[in-house]
Amino acid sequence: MRGFLQLTWAETKLFIREWQAVFFTFIFLPMLLILFQAIFRNDPSVVFGNVATVDEMVPGFIAIGIASNAIYIIGGVLSSYRERGILRRFRVTPLRPGAVLASQVLVVYAMTMISALLLMLIARPFGLKIAGDPYSMVGAFTLGALSFFSFGFLIGSLFKTARITYSVNTTVFFSMIFLSGAAIPLDLLTPFMRHIAQFIPLTYVVNLLRDAWLGRGLGASWPNILVLTVFFAICAFVSSKAFRWE
Amino acid sequence: MEGTGNQEAAMKAISVEGLIKNYSSVRAVDRIDFDVGAGEIFGMLGPNGAGKTTTIECIEGLRNPDGGTIRVLGLDPQREGYELRERIGVQLQATALYERIRVREALKLFASFYRARSPWADDWEKLIEPLGLADKMSSYYHTLSGGQKQRLHIALALVHDPEILFLDELTTGLDPQARRAMWQLIKEIRDRGKTVFLTTHYMEEAEQLCDRVAILDHGRILALDSPADLIASLGGENRILFTLEDPYDVDCFQEIPHVSRVERIDSQVALYSSQSSKVLLELIKRADVSGWSLHDLHVQRATLEDVFLTLTGRALRE
User: Fold this and answer.
1) Residue B128 lies in a domain
2) What is this entry's stated membrane topology (chain A) (predicted)?
3) For A5, nearest residue in chain B (alpha carbons)
4) Which H/E stretch holds residue B186?
5) Is the predicted pLDDT of residue B254 greater than 90, yes or no?
6) Which of A103, B99, B138, B253 could form an SS bridge with A7, CB 3.0 to 4.6 Å?
7) Is the ipTM here above 0.95?
8) Between residues B295 and B11, which one has the greater pLDDT?
9) Are B101 and A14 an interchain contact pair (Cβ–Cβ within 8 Å)?
């Protein structure tokens, strides 16, 4: 337990010292939100089904934060630790493998949560109204985060080198951002692309978060919950089979 | 009688019997047996690919052997791995750490992995000072030099005051001065009552540092003894070396009394003999008669290198 806590503390400091992660999570996303606000303004928009732009956009950006941390941090860090022999070094100590994974999840979860709160704080002056109750929001956020973290572990387990993982990550990340409705409303896409979006896991995170943030309740969002739970189970199962310490 | 048996077992830090490890169709370790006594520095010497790293990693529990038994402090590294890892310290051959972790943080982190409280927890300087890292406590890992990183990894292997220290190719990549300092350090660790198990492909390291050496080649132990006894097993031969540019006939060296063997590499000649002073006198006489000028004439005592050469017919360094 002491090992787990110390490792979590160390991973927290390492996250903060990694400027790319800090920049993307805490600076780039909020800046992008401000930029999008300047472009779209905050009128209730037809493309958003008459919901104020900012109210739609914040959950979408939180989903982008989840996806980027899951894919780049969890997926990337894991394969670079393995490649550099850090995981192997841990294996000759009494530290349990589960502690390494759990501390990673905990740190990235907390950082993603902070970035979500930051986005909501920045969106307030733009007139963000949050209709959802905190429990549904935390629940939706947690399911979205955990399902994507297990996806991150899957990517980190499948590929041999951090370099390959990085290329795969970038491809996966950008196709998800643009095809999930997280950055661009799905109604702006062609019907064919909208069809494709149904196969993008992030779409369900975006929908689930929007339902929670806009106060539609988690009951109405059960298809998203179902899809993400199955997605979580598949990724967790496959990555636990594919995972290698070296 | 039983008491003696137990005592004997307690004196053994590591015992390996019939260890086998295959990689697909290649047998990397081929039925080796040896014991390591408590409190000794035990070395495995051999060329790259001899099976040293495989052996050490089987003992550490990182690899699952295909045959044989291993006991470390009486524990099975595969079945009782977690218990064992509380009591051993390991420095891996190629190892890394987080780039942006400070030395102090790394020490604290690794210390937290063990049940026992680190004896240095209140004063890390005491652990790190003999390793020459006292002024590096706040430095990031990536700013350390190769030698400093290596020494930090030894510190990390020592944080929990382990009973056995494993070192795989400890001084590879260090300059000669750093290497000697490292040897001194390892001896001090042994003198504190620890057992040290190391692998090396430097015969000088094995000779200077180890109490006992196992010479490994193609996954088998060819010889196992103290460096002095291994060298003595060659019959106490020394080597007389000189350079000779003038034309000569090899036979005229071979016929010098007490010369057992002659070796030539270009213009360099080596005469092997257990009576080197007599050979030397005779050699100088003949040089005088023939008008040769012998350059760089000197006598070298036999080394583990010669032991390896005798056992395998090959030089160690190739």
Assistant:
1) yes
2) Multi-pass membrane protein
3) B112
4) helix B176-191
5) no
6) A103
7) no
8) B295
9) yes
